[in-house]
Design brief:
single chain, mainly beta, six-stranded mixed sheet, 3 helices, globular
Length: 508
């Protein structure tokens, strides 16, 4: 059934009387979280500062978002359905991608789960031309889009039992979004099947149900229901908000389809699970600087005795954090750093986040700012002159060359212009080898330059991107929640006013 047929127009029932608009500040009473709601039915719905077209954009809503609204509309100028105030601020146009028909919410893609390291479950296309359908495809559409289906399903069945390890969302987070312990596979974890295991076959199962509610075709994707919308390149990443099974024959298990945030349907058997890395940085509230991360493979601890260095038997994992004392020794021309646990490590095997003695002018009071080192591939979060978090990142692969003509991350002092729970990524960030939809925790610094969560790789500590600064999911979620502007509950994005937004210092 089409959205228009369900009443998603400016003529929705329940539109209140216009309160009119004025050029001065509008006095909008604080909206209770228990008040009436509206629901977004397409991505990118603008939340404006005033109830009028062309007003400054405060943020965006995405498909499935339920947001508290005012009871009555604040005028209908340039919006036939009326401008509604939303919690905690701003206005949206009823009919321009939103509706008061909140009963449609269960028929839409599920909104992101913003309390977790990854807001959706992610997969990567296993084959070139993996189909993304608009609406449930009929057998003829499937036969056209997937002529190899019979053979493919046989292979998919063989892979279904492949065990998957810990996922980013298995890492427990405290109230600040800081990782608080090792990954824990709970029975309620993403894709845990009936046998208490996470497999390729169970990862895109949601709640174990085999039937899904009818889906409403979304205006954003357009096209004829049942037609193949797009052919995904092999390796391309997609987010899955929920899934359902279709059983044409009525016997045995049916075929599962994942629902993307924009309402497309992708066969789950065509997706390889991308559970996200569990690796993360260090909470400096508990471990003070200096801090090192192991930069290489096959790195061992060393012992010092009477000016001689002897290699120990203990091996340190690559990327492992090593708190340092700040003391060092040079033996036969090789520098060694002392770990707080008492052993020594060759400096050439480490990336060190030093304890600063000099600070930029803006590092005052409790001002929050981020320090990104392109040479070291590290990010450190500060509150004034107090370091609170440190981790590894991946910046532009041409490192310290001219960003105007190469794949180098621009250096300078920026502010976070906007924050997006998810957003697509320029293919140049992944060497144009595949497409990335709905990358999590994106913080834009400048057009074409963002801090971005990365679910498709665990390759931090090395320059690999185009212009972006990429973080692994747990770290990206931590920094996203800590940085300004805050994204209000139910919103998908928030924009900074002039001179606002967390400062990001990108330096050599």
């Amino acid at each position: 059934m089409a959205l228009g047929a369900l009443g998603c127009t400016g003529a929705d029932a329940g539109v209140g009387l216009s309160k009119g608009t004025a050029q001065g500040p509008l006095e909008v009473p604080e909206l209770s979280a228990e008040g009436p709601k509206l629901v977004a039915v397409r991505p990118g719905v603008p939340v404006l500062e005033r109830p009028e077209a062309g007003a400054r954009k405060l943020g965006e809503l995405s498909v499935g978002a339920l947001v508290t609204r005012s009871v009555e509309a604040y005028g209908k100028a340039t919006c036939a359905g009326g401008w509604y105030a939303v919690r905690p601020r701003g206005f949206v146009c009823n009919g321009d991608g939103v509706t008061l028909r909140v009963d449609l919410a269960p028929l839409l893609p599920a909104p992101p789960e913003v309390s977790r390291s990854l807001p959706y479950r992610y997969g990567r296309a296993r084959t070139q031309g993996t189909p993304a359908y608009v609406g449930l495809p009929d057998p003829a559409a499937v036969a056209e889009a997937e002529p190899d289906l019979g053979r493919w399903l046989g292979k998919a069945g063989e892979r279904a039992g492949t065990l998957l390890g810990a996922a980013a969302n298995d890492v427990p987070l405290d109230g600040r979004g800081v990782p608080s312990g090792p990954p824990v596979l709970l029975p309620t974890g993403d894709g845990i099947g009936e046998e208490g295991k996470r497999t390729e076959g169970s990862f895109f199962g949601f709640g174990g149900g085999k039937a899904g509610a009818p889906l409403v075709p979304l205006p954003v994707v357009g096209g004829e229901v049942g037609a193949k919308l797009a052919a995904l390149r092999k390796g391309s990443g997609v987010a899955v908000t929920r899934s359902f099974e279709v059983n044409e024959g009525g016997e045995g298990e049916g075929r599962r389809f994942g629902v993307t945030p924009d309402g497309r349907l992708v066969p789950a058997d065509r997706l390889q699970a991308a559970p996200g890395s569990t690796w993360h940085g260090v909470d400096l509230e508990k471990v003070a600087l200096p801090l090192a991360f192991v930069h290489r493979y096959d790195v061992h601890t060393w012992e010092m005795e009477r000016g001689k260095a002897t290699e120990g038997e203990e091996e340190l994992e690559r990327h492992a954090p090593v708190p340092l004392t700040g003391k060092f020794r040079t033996v036969d021309g090789v520098r060694f750093e002392e770990a707080r646990e008492g052993f020594w490590v060759r400096a050439q095997d480490l990336v060190v986040v030093v304890k600063r003695s000099k600070f930029p002018e803006f590092a005052r009071g409790t001002t929050r700012w981020l320090d990104v080192s392109v040479a070291n591939q590290t990010l450190t979060a500060y509150e004034g002159q107090k370091a609170v978090y440190a981790t590894l990142v991946s910046t532009g692969h041409d490192q310290l060359q001219d960003p105007a003509s190469t794949a180098s991350t621009p250096r300078g002092v920026f502010r976070v212009r906007s924050k997006h729970v998810t957003r697509g990524v320029d293919t140049r960030e992944v060497q144009e080898s595949f497409d990335v939809a709905d990358a999590p925790w994106v913080m834009e610094l400048d057009p074409g330059v963002s801090l971005t969560g990365m679910y498709w790789s665990d390759g931090v500590g090395e320059p690999r991107t185009f212009h972006n600064v990429a973080l692994l999911p747990v770290d990206a979620r931590r920094i996203f929640g800590w940085a300004e502007p805050a994204v209000p509950e139910g919103w998908h994005a928030a924009y900074s006013a002039e001179g606002e937004g967390t400062i990001v210092n990108v330096r050599p």
